[in-house]
Amino acid sequence: MKIFYQLLVLMLFSLGLNAQTARVQIIHNSPTPTVDIYANEARLLDDFAFRTATPFIDVPAETEINIGVALSDSDAATDAIANFPVTFADGASYVVVASGIVGGSPGFGLSVFDMGMETADSDENVGILFFHGSPDAPTVDVLTGGNILIDDASFGDFQGYLNVPASSYDLDITPGNDNSTVVASYQADLSWWKGRTATIFASGFLSGDDPAFEPWVALDNGGTFPLKQISTPPPPPPSSTARVQIIHNSPTPTVDIYANEGKLLDDFVFRTATPYIDVPAGVEINIGVAGSDSDSAADAIANFPITFEEDGSYVVVASGIVGGSPGFGLSVFDMGMETVDSEENVGILFFHGSPDAPTVDVLTGGNILIDDASFGDFQGYLNVPAAVYDLDITPGNDNTTVVASYRADLSWWKGRTATIFASGFLSGDDPAFEPWVALDNGGTFPLPAIMNSIPDNPQYSIRPFADSGKMDFQAFPNPTRNHVTLITDLEKSAELKLIISNAQGQQLKIMDYGIQDEGMFQMEVSVSEYRTGMLFFTIQQGTRISTKIINVVNE
Q: Which residues of the chain form CATH 2.60.40.2550?
């Protein structure tokens, strides 16, 4: 899915620079087509795929906007197969779900919830909105532990938000008039999405038609993934297994993936990922890649025989260009990780998957994280404090020339892992270059740009990056030999803590300064006991967090 901010600028210009705005998230839950979305005459979303979502974005308010829905090969707003005039209220927040069946019953339409939320009512809670979007499913209830969460939800209904502790919940689906009959049960693990919101939406056909019924999650940042079904026992696992995550990073086609003769993934969309799944180990598996309209493994356009080792863990990225150069292929990383060695860290794997991008380095705070990464290369894992990092992309042989900078906020993904993968074309061809994140649970989302000089990507310069709860502090001298001085400006009274970690993510020291009043606060920290190298200094001020790299040069 393309970043669409360029359109928003055009819309704002057309309506006046001081136009009022609302916040909107759009979720695609209509089973059949990949579509283009237009706002008046401008294209808002290109190739918007089923079961994907946008983050919350700013849109003009207090003026009527015609939302046009066209098939994915459209050329202009006049190709729209359906039009929906909408007017958003200034300062309001909306969740808009495209659902129903194009040319069928119930018909295609947009369902609008006008009390959207991007944050929960507590840093320890998660806000959950429910939407019934399964066209042939009857009125249902949703229960957890025998208690009704959702009562008499029919197709097209929203119910929520529920602000509940960020945890893992087993959800039972029952008919609306019979809570004793559990149709299916799913596990909703949102324990890691603290302080944020998500929409759980029923999707697909209950009758067994394609696509089959599944509840999905759309996070407020645009990431989507299915809930894990727990009521139907899985088939017995093979005698030996490996764990595999698959990421689709080949720009052009939506594909079907086959493992030997069985279909492993249906309509696998660009820039989406699976969670880690169990696969047979110790035997050769033919991974076949076919077009999205395939009928069997015999339709594969490319085949890759792979043997996974027992108890191994793998990240497999489909990249390259079908019928082009570099050619389509699977890149395999054989040391995948789903968890890290500390609950306060995040494990980050990097993959260079931009077909026309040169060898690059990735820096943060002037320090090289990724060195000389070329197309098809993996580098990682970095086990680092779960925090917010500003990443600078430079040519591999010139760290003084920053091509683009992105903000990687993984402060909420504590104890887990993620793959950051370069995607799209650096030349400005479609799709444009963007770094994306694939979480170990299969959620994907793009990193927001904070500076960019890549051709034909003016959308990145629309507005400064919004405050994400990140704080800042000064550290000097850096590099340092014996000690470092830290100065931070506390906006309000809060508990203050300093965590020192090494480059492997191991916590070396925790310094708790207790409750401090608002205003400037200075810390003098000795580093004489540490060897020469990089240290990560993380300051936590209540729920706010910031990390800097300190270079120690002790002999």
A: 473-552
**Residue 455: left if φ>0, alpha if ψ -120 to 50, beta else—which one?**
beta
The residues that bridge with 258 in the sheet, in sequence order, are 263, 288
CATH of domain 473-552: 2.60.40.2550
Residue 359 · residue 378 · CB < 8 Å: no
Q: How far apart are CA 293 and CA 164, in angstroms?
A: 41
Distance CA 437, CA 421 (A): 6
Please enumerate in sequence order all residues whose Cβ is within 8 A of that of 444, keeping only pairs 6 or more positions apart, or say none.
223, 224, 247, 271, 272, 273, 436, 437, 438
Starting from the edge strand earliest in sequence, which strands make up the sheet with 214-219, in order?
158-165, 125-132, 197-203, 214-219, 224-226
Q: What is the DSSP string of 524-540?
A: EEE-TTSPSEEEEEEEE
- The beta strand positions in 158-230, using DSSP E, are 158-165, 168-175, 184-189, 197-203, 214-219, 224-226, 228-229
The span from the CA of 69 to the CA of 367, in Å, is: 46
Cα distance between residue 67 and residue 88, in whole Å: 12
For residues 415 and 287, give the distance between their C-alpha atoms in angstroms, rounded to a whole number.
31
* pLDDT tens, N- to C-terminus, the chain (555 residues): 333 444 443 444 354 444 688 999 999 999 877 888 888 888 888 888 889 999 998 888 888 999 988 888 889 999 988 899 999 999 999 999 999 887 788 888 899 999 999 999 999 999 999 999 999 889 999 999 888 989 999 999 999 899 999 999 999 999 988 888 888 899 999 999 999 999 999 999 887 788 889 999 999 988 999 998 886 555 555 568 899 999 999 987 788 899 888 888 888 888 888 889 888 898 899 999 988 888 899 998 889 999 999 999 999 999 988 778 888 889 999 999 999 988 889 999 999 999 988 999 999 888 888 899 999 999 989 998 988 888 999 998 888 888 888 888 888 888 999 999 999 888 878 888 889 999 898 888 888 877 554 444 333 222 233 333 446 788 878 788 888 888 888 888 888 888 887 765 567 888 999 988 888 888 999 998 888 877 878 888 876 777 787 878 876
Q: Which of 449, 454, 352, 456 is nearest to 406 (CA)?
A: 449
